């Protein structure tokens, strides 16, 4: 049996009223008597009637819904960001439609087409690791679709953006490692196309150079799937361990890379922090429970989601075209635990 939602026609038929009378009663029109309004509203509530959002969107030219595209909902960073997005959206009367790209440009485009065909009022996006061509986003934005980027941003589109200070996060982490006696520090990164990868690697390199340590490109490994494919992480760590001068610490530049590196090191019987220091970007609470507890660079994900949504609603509800945009940069938090303890000489 196919589900069919209750309509105004159903209410009108049940109560012996015209559809226009029911419609006006539901809108609290002054043209309808209090008695009739009460009758209609009580019946509508008893059968769990809700207005058709598609019909409302056609009438008001707004759906009061926003689309969100992220790489992976299961990722702790993105799930926390979504909490922030939903809290602000829901409190302002908006629904949220969430989709994930799985780091695929093709799936990202499918999601984009699906969301925009549903007459959403705006988009919040963190781009996929594969995306090189941002013309679809630019075309939508130029046609008037409000878009806000967060975390993985598109620099060529002039709109609101919300990021963390990725440069500082990596810089502080490497500086911490150096202060604890590590002198041969490798970096395991996600896709080199991503804005966050570029910024974090710049911070990594700057910290090395400012402390008199050379930047060795052989010490930088890329995992295009960002840790979602463990074999990629395994290959990166194995190649690092095969270098003539092995690293004594690893900075990992994304959530799943951090736990992935630890898993590979353990599988190769390399003790952390005894033989290898480890620190990485992560928002997972589980990093505190892992053995050893992981040092992390934590991002204010909830706040990023809240700010991005407030900025998007400002674009959606503005009575005039918005021509001035801002990039909000939030501070990361360095959380020091056992995995980056002082190196034993």
Question: How does this structure look, described?
Answer:
Keywords: DNA-binding, Transcription, Transcription regulation. InterPro entries: Cro/C1-type_HTH, HTH_LacI, Lambda_DNA-bd_dom_sf, Peripla_BP/Lac1_sug-bd_dom, Peripla_BP_I. Residues 6-60 form the HTH lacI-type domain. It comes from Terrimonas rubra. It is a single chain. The protein has 345 residues and is of the alpha/beta class. It folds into three domains: 8-51, no CATH class; 63-164 and 301-331, Response regulator (Rossmann fold), CATH 3.40.50.2300; 166-298 and 334-340, 3-Layer(aba) Sandwich (Rossmann fold), CATH 3.40.50. The protein contains twelve helices and twelve strands. It has helices at residues 8-15, 19-26, 34-46, 53-60, 76-91, 105-117, 135-142, 166-179, 195-210, 230-241, 255-267, 301-317; strands at 65-70, 95-100, 122-125, 147-150, 161-164, 185-189, 220-222, 249-252, 277-281, 295-298, 327-330, 333-335. Helix 5 packs parallel to helix 12 and helix 8 (166-179) runs parallel beside helix 9. The chain is elongated and about 85 Å long. The termini are far apart. The model has no long low-confidence stretch (mean pLDDT 92).
């Amino acid at each position: 049996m196919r589900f069919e939602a209750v309509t105004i026609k159903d209410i009108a038929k049940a109560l012996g009223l015209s559809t226009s009378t029911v419609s006006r009663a539901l809108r609290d029109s002054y043209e309808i008597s209090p008695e009739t309004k009460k009758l209609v509203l009580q019946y509508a509530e008893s059968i769990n009637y809700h207005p058709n959002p598609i019909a409302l969107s056609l009438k008001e030219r707004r759906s009061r819904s926003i689309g969100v595209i992220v790489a992976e909902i299961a990722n702790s960073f993105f799930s926390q960001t979504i909490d922030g997005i939903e809290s602000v959206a829901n409190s302002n009367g908006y629904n949220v439609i969430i989709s994930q790209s799985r780091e695929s440009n093709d799936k990202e485009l499918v999601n984009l087409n699906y969301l925009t065909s549903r007459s959403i009022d705006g988009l919040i996006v963190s781009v996929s690791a594969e995306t090189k061509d941002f013309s679809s986003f630019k075309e939508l934005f130029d046609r008037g679709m409000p878009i806000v980027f967060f975390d993985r941003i598109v620099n060529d589109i002039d709109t609101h953006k919300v990021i963390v200070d990725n440069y500082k996060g990596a810089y502080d982490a490497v500086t911490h490692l150096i202060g604890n006696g590590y002198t041969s520090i490798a970096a395991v990164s996600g896709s080199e196309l991503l804005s966050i990868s570029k910024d974090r690697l710049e911070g990594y390199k700057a910290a090395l150079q400012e402390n008199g340590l050379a930047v060795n490109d052989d010490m930088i490994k890329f995992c295009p799937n960002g840790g979602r494919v463990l074999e990629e992480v395994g290959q990166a760590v194995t190649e690092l361990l095969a270098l003539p001068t092995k690293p004594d610490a690893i900075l990992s530049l994304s959530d799943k890379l951090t736990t992935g590196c630890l898993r590979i090191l353990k599988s190769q019987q390399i003790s952390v922090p005894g033989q290898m220091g480890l620190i990485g970007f992560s928002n997972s609470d589980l990093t505190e429970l892992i053995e050893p507890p992981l040092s992390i660079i934590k991002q204010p994900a909830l706040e990023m989601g809240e700010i991005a949504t407030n900025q998007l609603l400002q674009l959606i509800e503005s009575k005039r075209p918005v021509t001035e945009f801002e990039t909000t940069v939030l501070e990361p938090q360095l959380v020091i635990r056992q995995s980056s303890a002082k190196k034993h000489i």
